[in-house]
Structures are given as structure tokens and as C-alpha cells.
Amino acid sequence: MRRLLFLFGLHLGICCHATQQLSEQLGAINSESDWETRKSLYTDIFDSLLAADIHSINKIVVDARANKDFDFVSSSLSTLAEYYLYNISKPDSALLIINAALADSGQISTSNLAQLWQTQGNIYHAMRKLDSAKYAFEASVDAFETINDTSRANLGLNYLTLSGIYLDQGDYLTAVTYLDKAQSLPAYQYDRDYKLQTLNNRANLYSMNGMLDQAVEFRKEIIATADNNANKMLLAITYLNYASEARKLQEDSLEIQVILDGLTLADTTDYTGKIITFYLLYKLTEAYSRQDMTNAALEAYQKMDFFRSQALNVPRYQMIYDRADAEALYCLQQFDAALTKAQSLLTNALQDKDAETIMDMHRLISRIQAAQGNFEQALNHYQTYNHLHDSLTRINRSNAVLYMETLYESERKKRIISDQNNKIQLLATSNAFNTKLLWGTIMASIMLIGMIYLFRSRQYALAKTKLQQTFSQKLLDAHETERKRIARDLHDGVGQSLILLKNNANTQGDESLAQLAGQTLDEVRSISRALHPALLTKLGISASIEKMLTDLDESTDILFSYELAPIDGLLPPDMEVHLYRFLQEALNNLIKHSKTTAADLEMKVEDHFIHVMIEDYGVGFDPDITKHSLGMRTLYERAAILGGQLQVNSMIGKGTSLSLKIPLAHA
């Protein structure tokens, strides 16, 4: 005991001596009259101040402000915020610090401002405030994209983080877009850790869409690519995700081996490493418990105690401890306590609509009831687990279909960009034609050869553009046909299975399962309706448009006034679908962006045209700025397929009007 007191006193004395020494250094620095000299000296001792005398950094910031060196202020506060976030786990304090730095945003260089936004995004991400994190990272991206950085590694990290956030929120199209941007940067070719992180995000994308085999292949590629110098924390995260996929594939031995491999890499000296180790130990406890390897499960459970005090104020971490407690109580054969804990977790999961936890708790309760000899109750919970597992499998299959739709949308965007490049090339060809024609007036022989050559080139380019436009129309038509088929399969296949599941649950008196099945059925029906407007086939184009307007009027705060002339039979069926999609896109844009309280829609037949007019009284926009947006390009693309003339008139603060004339002869 005396030796311990001696060592503590010695350590305290060393710390006090270090603090006193730093204080003396600060005093010596303050005596320097030149700011640049002081700044250089501050930089030399900054890391030491973080570890020993963090409050002295405020004096440095005050000195930098007094000398109007706001870039030094921003970099100092950014480093301080990261210290609060990663070293002492105080994200709230870190956020206050970074917001104070951003208060000087008008006087900070673009590169430093980009770093500040990135740090703020990391803080919000750690706090699970995903929308705020998304805003901060996108602001950082805008700033980084203006910097002439050959590697653009920081920009790439923003792309990867944004991809992960959009993936968590279920926006797969945007997630894929940011992931493609990250992979297109030079850093992907020469930065090993950056490449591994990109591959890891790609694997997450497959895993969250139920495409587990593809996800596992990416995990194996990451592990095979890594060497002794690779980021061990990143590899530990890879093993953590790999273990989840092994469990879903019901490969229990592989899951345990992957977790053990991950634990050899995790580093508990920093906060992130502690979190990863904590999750790996929990998964190991659960895996051993499922295999009835009770001693191994309890050993892994006991190792989790190192993080328990830090998890008390974080609900998602505390929930993991509760699940581990339930498994440990089961292994200790304290079945009543284990059952109480598992039932409490099941109740909370039902409130949070956490399907995976609901399924796991039914399985655990089944095991506990079986151990207590309550075989009927055990069978009921196991059957519920099986029903949920089957439902989740069907949903994953539906997600896989939607993911393929997302990939199609991504390819469609690339095709639009390719079309624009073709138009640019065509314009360049025309300019070359005019230039060579001028020279041809001087050189008759060259003029003749040049004109023939350029004429043929131009004709080829025009023919190619026309062919691409025809292909675009056929691709959209094929897309509509496929959407219709997928919608029908969802309705007839997954929908009928969910109805049967709901009826069985009602028969068995399982209200929670019946409610979950009903909610899932509603989601499947909503997806089916979004994929293909069935009313278009049943009621016709006029009634379908009126039904769409009625639904929008009831489901939004916008008052829709409309006057619709009957147009049934005036357009071929495929053109009716394009007109319906055009109106759907236009009205969705109006609801999303106009901030109007009222809108008018008129559709009439005049001469040989169908004339559609939409007008709102909202905030308006600048057409020159937004004409290249995805929404506007989609409207113009649909109008071109209809052979119509689209005019969009808008002024900021004056609302927006849209006019489409479709020639009946063309249709």
C-alpha cells in the first residue's frame, strides 16, 4: 500500500512539474514581441498542452484573435474539439468548441473552413445526429472541391462518410453516388487504408440490401489486401461486420473465428477502439451462448466490464449490455432473471420497431423457456422467431430488387451525362466544320474534301444522337414494364405471404406480430403502388390523374384546384404512362420545393394538342440555375419522349408556371 501511495505521489509530482514547466514556457513565449515567432513556439508545445494543461489553449486562441490570425484560431480549436471528442469522449463540449470556431467563418481560408466543417460532421456523426452530420459533411465537400489538392484524401473521407450516412437512412441511390465519387479519386489507387475503407462501405451496401454472399466476398478481399501496415482499427471494423454476416448466414463457427480475429486487432487505448472491442465481445458472448458454450460465453461477458461505466449515458450501448446480461444470466442458469431481462428487451424492441432485436429476443426466450421445461411457451416463441426470420428474408429479397432499381437509376444518370457529352462533341464538330469551311474559300480542293468529311461526320453524330434518344425511350418503356412486373410480384407474392402471416398471428392472438406484419404489408403495398400506377390500367389516364390530385390534396397542406378535360383514348398506352410520370414528377417537385399553399392544374384539348398547365404561388426559383438539376432534366426528357414543348417560367418570390403542349398527331 505504501508503495502504491509512493508511486501515485511520484506520478502527481511529475504531472505538476510538467504543468509548471509548460506554464514557464508559455510565459517565455508571451514575452516575444513578434506574433509569427510566438505562433511557431505555440505550435511546438500544443500537443503537450492538450495532455497536461488544456485550459492554457484558451490563452493561445485569445492571442491569435488579437493578431487577427483566424486560420490559426480555427486549426487550434479544431484540434481541441477532436481531443474532446476522441480522447475524453465529450462530444457536447467538442461541438461547442467547433461552433465557436465557425463563428469566424467569413475570415477563415477555404481549406481551414473545409476542415472545420469536417470536424463538425464527425462530432454530429458520433452523436448520431445524422441530418446535422450530413449538412456539415456536404458543406465540407463544397469547400474541399474548390481546393486544388492532387490527392483529395480529405474530400474522399467526406464522400465515404456521407455514403455511410445515406446508407443508414436507406437512401441507396445517393449512397452509391457518393461511393462512386470516393472510388474515382486518385487516393483510391495509392492510399491502401482509403481503398480498404471504400471496399468496406461497398460491402456494407450489399449487406444492408440482403446480398450477404456479395458482402462476404468484399470482406475477404479487404482482409486479403491488407498487410502488416494496414489500419488495424479499420480491419477490426471489417471483422465486426463480417461476423454479423456470418451469423445471418447461420455459419456459427465462422462467426466465432471472425470475432476472435477481430479482437486481436482492436486497440482499447482510444475511445473508438474501446467501442469496437465492446461490440466484438458482446457478439462473442452471444455466439458462445447460442452454442451452449457457457464458460466461454461468461469469460467474454466478464471482459465487457471495462466499458460499462462509459456506456451508462448512451442508450444504444446500454441496450447492448442489457442483451449481454440476459445471455449471461441464461448461461448461469438464472432462468427467471434471464427471462425478465429478455422480456423487457422484447417490450422495448416492439416499441422501437427493432425487427432484428424482436427476432433475437423471441429466440432467447424460447431457449430460456425450454430450459425451464415450459416447452409449449418455448415452441410458441420459436415459431414466432421463425415467422419473423422468414419475413425478414422476404423483405431482404425485396430490398435486393430495390437496390437493383437504384443501380439502374445510377446508370441512367451516367447515360444522361454521356448524352450531354455527345451533344458537346456534336457542337465541337459543327465548330470545326465552320472553321474548315472558311479555309475552304481560299483552298478550293481542301474545301471540297473537308466539306465531304465534315458532312459525313456530322451526319454520323446526328444519327448517333437520334439512336441514343430512341434507346432512351425504349429503355424507359422497358423500365416501366419491369416496374409493373416487380409491383405485381410484390403484390401477389410477398403481399399474400404477409396477409397469411398476419391472419395466423391474429388467430394465435399474437397482436405484436400481427401489427408488425400489417405494417410490413402496408410498406410492401406502398412500394408496389410506387413502382407502377395500377389505376392507370384499371380506370384510364383521366381518372388516374384525378385520383393522384385528390390524394395529394388530402395528404398535403397544399390546396389543389384542377380542371381536367377527358383525354382517354387520345394517347397510346405507353404515352399515357409517360404523361402520368411527367405529372407525378412535376407535382412532387412542386410539393418538395415551392413552399406554396395553393396550386392550379388545368388540362385541356385544343386544336391538335393536349395542353397541360401547372401553376403555384410559392417561392419560385431561377430557371437558369436549376435547369440542369435532375428533376428538371427528367421533366424535359419525358416531354421530349411525348414529342411535346415544355415551357417553365419562374421568378424568385413570384411562383412558378409550367406549360406542356403534346401534339396528338405525334402521340
UniProtKB/TrEMBL annotation:
InterPro entries the UniProt entry points to: HATPase_C_sf, HATPase_dom, His_kinase_dom, Sensor_HK_TwoCompSys, Sig_transdc_His_kin_sub3_dim/P, TPR-like_helical_dom_sf, TPR_rpt
UniProt-recorded name of the protein: Histidine kinase/DNA gyrase B/HSP90-like ATPase
Organism: Marinoscillum furvescens DSM 4134
Any one Pfam family match given in the protein's UniProt record, by short name: HATPase_c
Membrane-crossing residue ranges in chain numbering: 437-455
Any single GO CC term annotated in Swiss-Prot or TrEMBL for this entry: membrane
Alphabetical keyword list: Kinase, Membrane, Transferase, Transmembrane, Transmembrane helix, Two-component regulatory system
GO molecular function list: phosphorelay sensor kinase activity; protein dimerization activity
Record-linked Gene3D superfamilies: 1.20.5.1930, Histidine kinase-like ATPase, C-terminal domain (3.30.565.10), Tetratricopeptide repeat domain (1.25.40.10)
Tree of life domain: Bacteria
Domain Histidine kinase: 579-666
Organism classification: Bacteria, Pseudomonadati, Bacteroidota, Cytophagia, Cytophagales
